[in-house]
Amino acid sequence: MSKSERLVQLKRQGYLIPEFIVIRNVDELRIKSELLCTNKFYAVRSSANIEDGNEYSFAGIFNSYLNVKVENLKEKIEECIV
After folding, report:
1. Cross-strand bridge partners of residue 54
2. Which tens digit of pLDDT belongs to each residue from 8-41?
3. What confidence score (pLDDT) does residue 15 get?
């Protein structure tokens, strides 16, 4: 189960989870752009299923960008992918 699927599951169970949009690549950004607000800031982070497991924890080694403006989302998503 991916991290985004776990977030959805937690939200459905009633946990207080901040609003989120999952964008897996730059093409999805174009498709989901109508969901974004120009006056909000976003967090962009790379993630992988192996990041947090029973045997290993890779927290902190993947890229994270906080307080990203809408006009910088594409750039930050591309930086996470590389």
Report:
1. none
2. 899 999 999 888 888 777 788 877 887 888 898 9
3. 94
Query: What is the Cα 34 distance to its own chain's centre?
Result: 17
Whether the CB-CB separation of 3 and 9 falls below 8 Å is answered with no
Structure tokens at 44: 């962009």
Query: If you search the block for the tokens 């906080």, which residue do you land on?
Result: 66
By residue range, what is the domain housing residue 61? 3-81
Which sign, positive or negative, has the C-alpha torsion 73, 76, 80, 82?
positive
Helices in the chain by DSSP H: which ranges? 3-12, 26-32, 73-81
* pLDDT-derived band at 60, boundaries 50, 70, 90: low
pTM reported for the whole predicted model: 0.67
User: In this predicted structure, what is the pLDDT of residue 10?
Assistant: 92
What single string gives the DSSP state of each residue in 50-71? TSB-SS-B-TTSS-EEEEE-GG
Total structural domains in the chain? 1
